[in-house]
Amino acid sequence: MWKMTRRISLSGRLCCFPEDPPEDVDAWSESVDNVLTCKKGQLAFRQFLQSEHSEENILFWLACEEHKKMKNVPEMISSANRIYFEFVQTEAPKQINIDFGTRENIAKNISQPTPASFDSAQKLIYSLMARDCYPRFLKSDIYQALLRRSDLR
Predict the structure, then answer these.
(1) Which of 54, 61, 83, 85 is the most buried (most CB within 10 A)?
(2) Sequence-separated (6 or more) residues with CB below 8 Å from residue 80
(3) More confident residue, 150 or 41
(4) What crossing angle do the helices spanning 119-128 and 56-68 adopt, rounded to 10°?
(5) CB of 83 within 8 A of CB of 118?
């Protein structure tokens, strides 16, 4: 896991940055996939989403990615229940913004989870992040500070 080594305050918000900015920070502006497939990008994007009170989106997306890797049934059931109760069920602590039909479909099938149990909801959240959050992330103080530090190297 990426070790955070310094906290810098930008516009009154605390942001976690490494001593040296990630080498691939420039590539993050090319696509949301470049952010999501990079551990350091995930951390920076999560910091940004926290500042917008929508951190549940990336947490759900990451939980789904881990869920897809589950091989044994007891682990998959445990993972599916955790994701459902933390993110999907109505009034969940970190409830994601998905439509009623998607939520109900997951609820109906939660007793027999598969690696694809959350695919429809994950696609909706990915689309929301790509269309809505990602463009704001690129303009954010968090990303802009990383770009500036990267340019200084």
Answers:
(1) 83
(2) 67, 110, 113, 117, 118
(3) 41
(4) 140
(5) yes
**Residue tagged 């090319």 (tokens):** 30
CA-to-CA distance for 36 and 17, rounded, in angstroms? 17
| Percent of the chain residues topping a pLDDT of 90 | 80
In whole angstroms, give the CA distance from residue 137 to residue 130.
10
What is the Cα–Cα distance from 121 to 105, expressed in whole angstroms?
10
| Minimum mean pLDDT range among 11-15, 16-20, 130-134, 139-143 | 11-15
Judged against a pLDDT cut of 50, whether residue 114 lies above it is answered with yes
- The rounded distance, in Å, linking the Cα atoms of 123 and 96 is 12
Query: Cα 76 from chain centroid?
Result: 20
What DSSP string describes 16-40? EE-SS--TTGGGGGT-HHHHHTSHH
Q: What is the sign of the dihedral through the CA atoms of 130, 61, 53 and 104?
A: positive
Q: Are 142 and 51 in contact (CB under 8 A)?
A: yes
Mean pLDDT of the chain: 87
Q: Closest by alpha carbon to 60, among 77, 44, 82, 39? A: 82
